[in-house]
Amino acid sequence: MFVGMDFGTTNSAVAVANxxxxxxxxxxxxxxxxxxxxxxxxxxxxxHRDADRRIRPLVGHDAIEAYLHxxxxxxxxxxxxxxxxxxxxxxxxxxxxxxxxxxxxxxxVGHLRRAAEAGGGRIERVVAGRPVRFVAEGxxxxxxxxxxxxxxxxxxxxxxxxVFEFEPIAAAYYYESTLDRDQTVLVADFGGGTSDFCLIxxxxxxxxxxxxxxxxxxxxxxxxxxxxxDRRMVEHGLSEHFGKYTTYENDGKVLPMPAWVYAKLxxxxxxxFLNAPQTLRLLRDLQRQVEHPHQVEQLLALIEHNLGYHLYxxxxxxxxxxxxxxxxxxxxxxxxxxxxxxxTRGEFEGWIGNELVAIETCVDDLxxxxxxxxxxxxxxxxxxxxxxxxxxxxxxxxxxxxxRISAGGEFISVASGLAQRAREAFRG
Length: 428
Known about the structure:
By secondary structure, the protein is of the alpha+beta class. Helix content is 37%, strand content 24%. It has 13 helices and 20 strands. The strands form six sheets. Strands 1, 2, 3, 4, 10 and 11 form a six-stranded mixed β-sheet that branches. It is globular. The termini are close together.
């Protein structure tokens, strides 16, 4: 059994390949039916305890259900993969227990391992995906540090041997299974936290190479993807509803609301950090002074009713609708917070303009560094959730033509390709 694990910022997946190289994605049970991905989320709910009365961490769909419908005190965590590069995040206290970042990652990885083992056989080695570059918030590359933390997390989850593969290369393996002739392919994989690219020779001829990596022409990546698009929608489309542009007077001066508050609002998993007595007192004081107190009241309600997750699910839905239509009505109605706003695709594309430029520049740099003219690229394979955003697809259509673009396996291509890579890495 050859296993590939795709531990993602937003979603994770695991696939198993047989001796013939056919990969099958493991399915996860949810209330709406089997799913091919696992949400990379955890919850710690006082109502869920093990036989020793310790709080039992919940993973994926179960974590979401406990967070949304539980009656007890609950901590909900998401997007912690983005902290692998952070040297300041070593551990956190959750309802009286201390967890390292590696512990948190291990809970997701262990869940993936057990799901794969349900098909039979103990799993102690895997090929795991990783972005082309682990980039810290300051822009510096932290590859060795981040992969070291992942190795420790996988070990904590019972996996003693892990081989890392770039996620776009794994997606290339997935795409290669559709080919009957050799091609030079640009693979673009858009995750929650990173956009990664690989130029590679694929097809029957690759099997004749001495080493699989000899087929790789070049790789590149940028720390921008779906989460960044979500932040821009909140920043430009929704923050005004929560008082970002209202003002107050102090000592005869007209002052804006604190910018740091709205920086937290733009990352939904940071909204919980605003639910601290000192911050709430500050916002209550400001509410009595601002020009539009109702807007700050809406912000306070969002924080105190723990509605950050709900808000960002609505953001994801609006982003998806804008991939299908020219406009949508963003609708969020969770009493006492109500938001309704018409958003056009043009507005959204303007909000993410800087991110689109960064992605475009990364692709151009890869072509330049590898001295690859666009005419020499036979196909472009787009995968990952943000590949569905029309403005993202347009970057490649402008360069290569719509007829050279293929897409698919948006949420499973990496896991499937990793399983096929595991067959090469561990066979014999």
